[in-house]
């Protein structure tokens, strides 16, 4: 849901965002009601002490002022001021507490939602945008929840009450007091245009800059080698300049608008004072009423000076909320759960098709992975191997056909069931910031230290983990950046061993390893694969010559299948790949 229709009136923007923000607060209705009520009480106490000031002025004007009464009034005013401040502090303290809870719940909701939507969604957003959304955007809601909702309730209610009371006292004077506000509104609207447009442009440019900065930092080693003339720096500069242009435009408009506003606010008394004196001289306005107008008319001016700031902050919140809502509105993978249990561990791809845009990247795939067998996927880059493996892990749902395990469609299977059946050692071994043990227990939370060490030994990772300071309790930061690619991969093999899923997806699991590491990993994978149903993607054909079945993909279709010997004998695409990778091996000389 968009926070703001294009060119929507300011009041619509404010009300819409207010309602959206309030929607996020519905989990804490009592706390929020108390916070808003305290804000209102603070505003009413503010009006009350100003009325006290009116009474003091009128009393002091009398020929024989009531000195004792004035003394009490001063004490009362002081009390009201203090009580007003306390009520306001109570309101914001409570709203800050609510903001922290709302932010925590929202981050958890976003993380949980991201785990349920197709991977295509996170691919579309990109890591930088998702990080901004979950961290920065949710963080910036603090302003909306902790400040804007209670402040807006108080700051707008009090002037509205004042306006109603002033109109009840004397409509001509009230109109004179309100006229600068109406002029100010109109001028501000003309100067700033649609503040939602400005904040959207601001966000887009700053997101572009963040993405470029991340890309620049990540690509520095490559850029140093290839970018001697600093072209990429120039590109980054162009992005920064676009960002500065948006800020410059905004500052110019705001400066002009606020100058106009100051004039309007300053002119408030210019109308009220002469009109009031004239009406009083004619006997049309009582002196106490004149004093009320003189005291309260400037507070209406105060409202309008705060308004641009409120409008901008509300528009900013509206933008943030629309981004968060858009992500939460991404439909999750379907969960048409079936009570049927998989009858066995046979995996079937039946008439499978998957599109990227208009292009079929997998088409008419029929394939059976028999329990306890190893099936290797082979094919040129872009043939669809990773996509097929990802579909088995249900990162996406197929557009045609289906995948079943033991006769049950993946779409009807509870995610817990699916992920207890299917494990993986991914292409890019992923470790999170935490200890080695915590990383391993992600797969099997209940495992004791001895089970972890056993898995590490089987994954040929025991000796390098023992060398880390703290061993199992050694901390891994930045995705395990301090480890080599092969070491990270062996930890992932250990994690997969602990996961103990009967079906395993291996995506180029030895790609990151040196020859010694590779031998170690092959051994580790050998133990991992034993007795399991394995789907392996391997570019190096030497590592899959013992596979029970090799499937050759080309542009999303299966073009050959068989074992190493039968495929070589066929002298088709697989034999061609083999010859390319093993040029020294004579034709027909099979290992
Ligand atoms: N996120 C994406 N968005 C759009 N197209 C994609 C995306 N990921 C993959 N593709 C396209 O889908 C097709 C299949 O890609 P896939 O990664 O499955 O191939 P692959 O055989 O695993 O290639 P490689 O061996 O290079 O990893 C390719 O044409 C690729 O360009």
From TrEMBL:
Compartments (UniProt record): Cell membrane
Gene3D superfamilies: ABC transporter type 1, transmembrane domain, P-loop containing nucleotide triphosphate hydrolases
Membrane-crossing residue ranges in chain numbering: 30-58, 70-88, 160-185, 254-279, 285-304
Record key words, sorted: ATP-binding, Membrane, Nucleotide-binding, Transmembrane, Transmembrane helix
Protein name: Vitamin B12 import ATP-binding protein BtuD
MF terms in GO: ATP binding
Coiled coil: none
Pfam families: ABC_membrane, ABC_tran
Keyword flag Membrane: yes
Domain ABC transporter: 347-580
PANTHER family, per database record: ATP-BINDING CASSETTE SUB-FAMILY B, COMPONENT LINKED WITH THE ASSEMBLY OF CYTOCHROME' TRANSPORT TRANSMEMBRANE ATP-BINDING PROTEIN ABC TRANSPORTER CYDD-RELATED
Gene name tied to this protein: btuD_5
Gene source species: Methylorubrum suomiense
Membrane topology field: Multi-pass membrane protein
UniProt domain ABC transmembrane type-1: residue ranges: 34-316
Family per record: Belongs to the ABC transporter superfamily.
Keyword ATP-binding: yes
InterPro entries per UniProt: AAA+_ATPase, ABC1_TM_dom, ABC1_TM_sf, ABC_transporter-like_ATP-bd, ABC_transporter-like_CS, P-loop_NTPase, Type_1_exporter
Major localization class: membrane
């Amino acid at each position: 849901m968009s926070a703001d229709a294009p060119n929507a009136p300011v009041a619509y923007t404010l009300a819409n965002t207010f309602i959206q923000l309030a929607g996020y607060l519905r989990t804490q209705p009592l706390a929020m009601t108390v916070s808003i009520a305290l804000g209102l009480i603070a505003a009413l106490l503010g009006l009350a002490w100003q009325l006290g000031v009116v009474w003091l002025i009128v009393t002091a004007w009398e020929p024989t002022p009531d000195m004792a009464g004035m003394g009490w009034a001063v004490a009362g005013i002081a009390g009201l001021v203090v009580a007003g401040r306390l009520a306001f502090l109570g309101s914001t303290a409570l709203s800050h507490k609510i903001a922290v809870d709302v932010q925590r719940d929202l981050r958890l909701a976003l993380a949980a939602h991201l785990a349920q939507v197709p991977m295509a969604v996170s691919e579309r957003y990109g890591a930088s945008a998702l990080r901004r959304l979950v961290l920065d955007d949710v963080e910036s809601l603090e302003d909306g929840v902790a400040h804007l909702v209670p402040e807006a309730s108080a700051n707008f209610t009090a002037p509205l009450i004042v306006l109603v009371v002033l109109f009840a006292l004397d409509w001509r004077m009230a109109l004179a007091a309100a006229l600068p506000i109406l002029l100010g509104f109109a001028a501000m609207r003309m100067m700033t245009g649609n503040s939602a447009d400005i904040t959207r442009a601001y966000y887009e440019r700053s997101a572009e800059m963040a993405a470029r900065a991340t890309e620049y930092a990540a690509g520095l080693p490559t850029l140093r080698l290839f970018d001697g003339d600093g072209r990429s720096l120039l590109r980054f500069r162009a992005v920064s300049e676009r960002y500065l242009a948006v800020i410059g435009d905004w500052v110019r408009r705001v400066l002009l608008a606020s100058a106009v506003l100051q004039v309007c606010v300053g002119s408030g008394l210019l109308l009220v004072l002469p009109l009031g004196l004239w009406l009083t001289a004619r006997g049309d306005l009582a002196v106490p009423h004149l004093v009320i107008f003189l005291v309260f008319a400037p507070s209406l001016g105060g409202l309008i000076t705060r308004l641009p700031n409120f409008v901008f902050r509300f528009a900013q919140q509206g933008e943030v909320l629309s981004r968060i809502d858009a992500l939460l509105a991404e439909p999750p993978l379907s969960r048409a759960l079936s009570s049927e249990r998989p009858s066995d561990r046979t995996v079937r791809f039946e008439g499978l098709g998957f599109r990227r845009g208009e292009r079929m990247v997998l088409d008419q795939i029929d394939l059976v992975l028999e329990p306890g067998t190893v099936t290797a996927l082979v094919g040129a880059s872009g043939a669809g191997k990773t996509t097929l493996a990802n579909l088995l892990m249900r990162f996406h749902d197929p557009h045609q056909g289906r995948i079943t395990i033991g006769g049950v469609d993946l779409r009807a299977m509870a995610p817990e069931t699916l992920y207890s059946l299917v494990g993986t050692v991914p292409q890019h071994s992923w470790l999170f910031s935490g200890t080695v043990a915590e990383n391993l227990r992600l797969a099997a939370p209940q495992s004791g230290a001895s089970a972890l060490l056993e898995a590490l030994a089987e994954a040929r990772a025991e000796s390098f983990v023992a060398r880390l300071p703290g061993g199992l309790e050694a901390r891994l930061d930045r995705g395990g950046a301090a480890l080599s690619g092969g070491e990270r991969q062996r930890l992932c093999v250990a994690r997969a061993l602990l996961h103990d899923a009967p079906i395993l997806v291996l995506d180029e699991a030895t790609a990151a390893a040196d020859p010694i590491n590779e031998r170690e990993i092959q051994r580790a994978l050998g133990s991992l694969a034993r007795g399991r149903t394995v789907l392996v993607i391997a570019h190096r054909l030497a590592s899959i010559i013992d596979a029970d079945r090799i499937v050759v993909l080309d542009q999303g279709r299966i073009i050959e299948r068989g074992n190493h010997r039968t495929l070589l004998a066929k002298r088709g695409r697989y034999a061609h790949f083999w010859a390319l990778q093993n040029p020294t091996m004579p034709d027909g000389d099979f290992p």
